[in-house]
Amino acid sequence: MLDRPPSERIVVFVERVAAIMLGLVTLLVAASAFGRYAFTAPVPDAFDISRLALAVAVAWGFASLGFRGSHIKVDLLAQALSPSVVRILDLIAWTVLLVFTIGLVWKLGGRVVSQFPGGEKTMDLRLPHWPFLSLLVAGFVMAIAMTLIRMWRMLVRGESLEPHETLTDDENHGAAHE
């Protein structure tokens, strides 16, 4: 892991946070379902905690998207254009993503601040929502950082949006193409 560039190490950390949160959601929901059907006693606040943790997982996954760019898209237009025009369109798309994410952080940050003076709590255990919302905002702040790193690499290094999706890289990772 230390032989990777710092940006790759950061994005691996971000992806691991998202994966851990998603794993925790899965375990919590499974344990609650088992408890509900086996002992008629579900895990207290399983619904509230799982939905808040899922939101955190999505936010940190969104941060990974800001760097990798491996979301669903249609490349019909991109295949008909020159690489320099595609690079400009990619920069425009990433700028829109950056502006959207900054707006999201601004609005969610306001929500977190409004939660401090006795805001919302879970039903059973009375856990405050603000720690989960803080992790949510942190995920979107990481999304801003990841998007800026990707844009810098596109501008300064001339990298394409998704160099990791080439056929050669897929074959090196064991993917079979027919």
TrEMBL record:
Keywords: Cell inner membrane, Cell membrane, Membrane, Transmembrane, Transmembrane helix, Transport. The keyword Coiled coil does not apply. Residues 26-155 form the Tripartite ATP-independent periplasmic transporters DctQ component domain. It comes from the Bacteria. GO terms for cellular component: plasma membrane. It holds the Pfam family DctQ. GO terms for biological process: C4-dicarboxylate transport. GO terms for molecular function: transmembrane transporter activity. It is found in: Cell inner membrane. It is a multi-pass membrane protein. The chain crosses the membrane at residues 12-37, 49-67, 88-109, 129-149. The complex comprises the extracytoplasmic solute receptor protein and the two transmembrane proteins. Part of the tripartite ATP-independent periplasmic (TRAP) transport system. Belongs to the TRAP transporter small permease family. This is TRAP transporter small permease protein. It comes from Amorphus orientalis.
